[in-house]
Amino acid sequence: MKKLKLRITNLVFATTVFLVVIMTFGLYLKRAERGNPHHDRADVRGLLQVANDDKVESDDKAFAVVVHRPAGPPRVALAGVDPQGRRGEVACSTCHSVRKANLENKTTDTLNEFHEGLVVNHGKLACYACHNPDDSDSLRLADGTNVAYQDVMTLCSQCHGQQATAFAHGAHGGMNGHWDLTRGPQMKNNCVDCHDPHSPSFPSMIVDFKPKDRFNAPAEHDQEGQ
Amino acid sequence: MAEQKPSLPVVENFSRRAAVKGAFATLGAGAFVAAVSPLRQAAKNSTAAEFMQQHYQELTAEQKAEVIARLEEEAKENYGVDVQIADDRPIPNTKFVYAINLSVCNGNGKCVEACHKENNHDRDTNQSYIRVLEMPKGTMDMEQGSTTYSGAVPKDDKFYLPVQCQQCDEPPCVDVCPVKATWKEEDGIVVVDYNWCIGCRYCEAACPYHARRFNWKQPTVPPEDVNPDQSYLSNRIRPVGVVEKCTFCLHRTRRGKLPACLEACPTGARVFGNILDPDSSIRWILNHKRVYILKEELGTKPAFFYYFD
Q1: CATH number for the domain whose boundaries are B96-308
Q2: A and B: number of Cβ contacts within 8 A
Q3: CA–CA dist A147, A2 (Å, integer)
Q4: Are A107 and A100 in contact (CB under 8 A)?
Q5: Rounded to 10 degrees, what is the CA torsion of A175, A178, A184, A189?
Q6: Which of A137, B18, B210, B280 could be cross-linked to A73 through a Cys-Cys bond (beta carbons 3.0 to 4.6 Å apart)?
Q7: Residue B250 has what pLDDT?
Q8: How do residues B54-100 score in pLDDT, each as one tens digit?
Q9: Are the C-beta atoms of A140 and A131 separated by less than 8 Å?
Q10: Residue B262 touches partner A, C-beta closer than 8 Å
Q11: Using the beta-carbon criterion (under 8 Å), do A175 and B258 form an inter-chain contact?
Q12: What ipTM was assigned to the predicted interfaces of this complex?
């Protein structure tokens, strides 16, 4: 009887000690977690936290995405040289301000003084769909707004919205420099760096560099086997 | 008299037996020298320090510095160039992902050339980590592709599939390595310790994308063509007899820059970035484009995506 009593007392004591230890340990863990947000158990939450921090930073990231812009309105080289042997170039408006614009013209075939040989293959657009009849040193949007040649991307984007969206998100047009804008800038092309505005489909290219590995030299092996 | 005075067996006591003994002794010595000659070659080609070098992941900071100093010295000796070998480590909270727009890629191969130059590949073989496959339209089956196309691209009935290391999340090449010379780092890049690799080429056989290359010979690179901007796990000039692979140009990308193949692409088909950044281009593409991966059925989980507009 006494033995049984002793055993029960022992058991109760052990349980109490066990519970106290567990509670202390739990409390300690909780406090550690609160003190250190990057605790292992909070990995996923920590990740989201960091992502959000980055987003805040993205507003004032140290470096910018720089989109290359054309230098300005084109200058037209004059044919021949003056008596001193100098070549000259003029602005578009030099001629176009004194000539009446033909709003319906779509091809250079009808021209016999200037722009001959210019290949135009851009849908069914007329020249003055993009060029500005009132100010030939700038471009014109479909709604009549003037656009400077430097801002040509605004003009392209009014029809090529999908490409413009993709470009804005880095999925079109390529890039150079840094992927990480906290460490350096990123440079991007504009539309007319790669696409000739008069004939915009990307030109075909010639392959020159080829690795000479086993996948590239089946002919040699075949000859050896013969 | 002769018995009391021991003498040289052959010269003073010449007999047929002695002659045969002598002949076989010479032959044996010759055979032994021939047998150990590869060892002598190896001793000539590798220093004691190189032989005793630990696995990259077990090197302490001081040991790393020593190893890198030695490698820079060797590059100077063998290639006549002053190179800087860095030890670029992963950027925290970064997981690199690549995407290629197959609607735009025209197979011109500028990426292949850029990789060749950036990564100090062997000039004799035009080696590169990228292969561009000319594919018949309507399939993503790599076996139907050809790398031997030439002339004007793109051809009307083809599309072009650039293939390089897919930096798989379940890399079969890492699993098969018997000496753990290749492993996946925290930013997703699968790297090789060229000094730990034994050149068994198991990984090359295991890779379903044919992405690994073996150095059959010591790479030859003229001094003026060596890219001196190097990293231990990346584009330092590899020794003969080891396997190498695309590292997403970690000597550039771990310093925030874009990979060389991307910068060289004249069509803008390539996009690279950190998938953990919700504002990155790569995230926008994964969210908005129809994205494919190669050999999905193998379960390799590539960090390399292909998409069409």
Answers
A1: 3.30.70.20
A2: 134
A3: 103
A4: no
A5: 0
A6: A137
A7: 96
A8: 999 999 999 999 999 999 999 999 999 999 999 999 999 999 999 99
A9: yes
A10: yes
A11: yes
A12: 0.80
What part of B 33-72 touches A (C-beta under 8 Å)? none
State the best of B280, B286, B289, B307 to mutate against chain A, taking most chain A CBs within 10 Å: B280
A58 sits in which H/E element: helix A43-59
Nearest-neighbour CA in chain A from B70: distance (Å)? 30
Residues of A in contact with B151 (CB under 8 A): 206-207
What does the block give as tokens for B106? Answer: 């025209």
